[in-house]
Amino acid sequence: MTQPPSAAAREAAQAFADGCQDVETFDELAARIATGKRLNVKLGLDPTTADLHIGHAVVLRKLQQFVDGGHNVTLLIGDFTARIGDPTGRNTMRPALTGEAIEANMKTYADQAGKVLDLERVTLRYNSEWLSTISFADLIKLLAQTTVARMLDRNDFAQRYAAGTPISMHEFLYPVAQAYDSVALEADVELGGSDQLFNLLMGRPYQVHAGQPAQICMTVPLLEGLDGKHKMSKSTGNHIALTDSANDQFGKVMRIPDEALTRYARLAAGWSRAEAEQIERGLIAGTVVPMDEKKRIAQAVATLYHGADAARAARVHFERTIQRGELPAEIPERRFEGVRTLVDIVVAAGFAESKRAAQRLIAEGAVKIDGSVVTDPKAFWNTLEPAVLQVGSRKFVRVLAEKG
Q1: Is 258 in contact with 214 (CB distance < 8 Å)?
Q2: 156: enclosing H helix or E strand
Q3: Burial (CB count <10 Å: 0-12, 13-18, 19+), residue 338
Q4: Nearest to 223 by CA among 90, 62, 58
Q5: Which of 174, 180, 182, 364 sees the fewest Cβ atoms within 10 Å?
Q6: Helices H, strands E: what count in the chain?
Q7: 348-401 pLDDT, tens per residue?
């Protein structure tokens, strides 16, 4: 008879499970740890956008915990599955990405993940290594291991089917491909966001069919975006990118609603459950000031990705420019030769993506010159004197006079 896991193994499993939303199953995790073997742990990320955000960092930190525990950790870049498109949470078919778009998005993925992971102790793999070589005959064998009824257990597929919204056959391939990733890597543990539980669980029967132990599936909660309601996503513009400057990360956290403070303390700043619950109790009792707690969390987030000194400077910058309405202590200087209109200056400074966007910012009163709002999109720029251009509350540049 198999001996139950020791207290030490269960304690170690509990440490890994802390902060997770799902662990399928905890007893299996404890039993696997009790064997003393180094577990094969995987996390897959599809390069569907160019930037990772601090929502991704929640699961990356959990992955790093397994790195620190001495396990075999693989960060899997889904360059092949990105061609299919993950249907998770979608009520319409996700457009397929081109090879060029996937390649462009992958260029900085490892560097961005390296802000959280110790990549020297992580194996980086791409699932095109095995998925691109599967024959049609092999694909038929893989598809035979699941049923349409099982696929329709997924909420998003079930809702679309009930509503008569088209579901393309290739969308069923995504969870199958992800399951095969677990077989290819002989995963003991797979990590993901809570919306990925169905995909992760798909790997278990596929591994058993392949003669492997079924992986343990562990999911972390999804971090809400700046609105405090919807999942953080670059496509909706409510994200904080890992590549954002310390000033931008600090300023964006300050925009979250007060009711999101506890979630951001726990998930974005990585504080303990006890610390997050202490903030929650203080908010309910009225013994803490939400603005002060928000600053602490914002500074902690900026510290994670830019260091303590940059985070402190970001706080000073916020308090000076946003709260007191003063100019920053340091303003970058640039010279734009031959640029005559305010619209052109705003675009040249990188504060707007196009002339039309610059015109809209000006018309909305978001542009200031030396502290004075300018609302005329046709305004010219005085090239003879230096002046401070401000767009919004966080973008500043001192425009120098043209060389004589």
Answers
A1: no
A2: helix 155-163
A3: exposed
A4: 58
A5: 364
A6: 19, 11
A7: 888 888 989 989 998 888 888 887 888 888 888 876 778 888 888 788 888 887
The identity of residue 332, as a single letter, is P
Spatial separation of the C-alpha atoms in residues 107 and 77, rounded to whole Å? 11
**28-62 pLDDT, tens digit each:** 999 999 999 999 999 998 887 778 899 999 999 99
* Integer angstrom CA distances of residue 157 from 2, 92, 198: 39, 10, 11
CA angle, residues 325, 327, 331, in degrees to nearest 5 = 150
The amino acid at residue 273 is R
Of residues 244 and 370, the one with the higher pLDDT is 244
Q: Specify the pLDDT at position 128.
A: 92
CA 115 to the chain's CA centroid: 12
- DSSP readout, 217-275? EEEEPPPB-TTSSSBP-GGGT---BTTS-HHHHHHHHTTS-GGGHHHIIIIIS---HHH
Q: Which of 48-57, 80-89, 266-275, 338-347 is the least confident region?
A: 80-89
Query: pTM here?
Result: 0.80
Domains of the chain: 7-220 (3.40.50.620), 244-323 (1.10.240), 333-397 (3.10.290.10)
Q: d(Cα 135, Cα 125) in Å, to the nearest integer?
A: 21
Residue pointed to by tokens 């996700």: 94
Q: Quote the CA–CA distance of 317 and 304 in Å, as a whole number.
A: 18
CA-to-CA separations, 316 to 258, 326, 333, 392, in angstroms, rounded: 21, 11, 20, 18
* DSSP SS3 for 395: strand
Report the 10 Å Cβ neighbour count for 212: 17
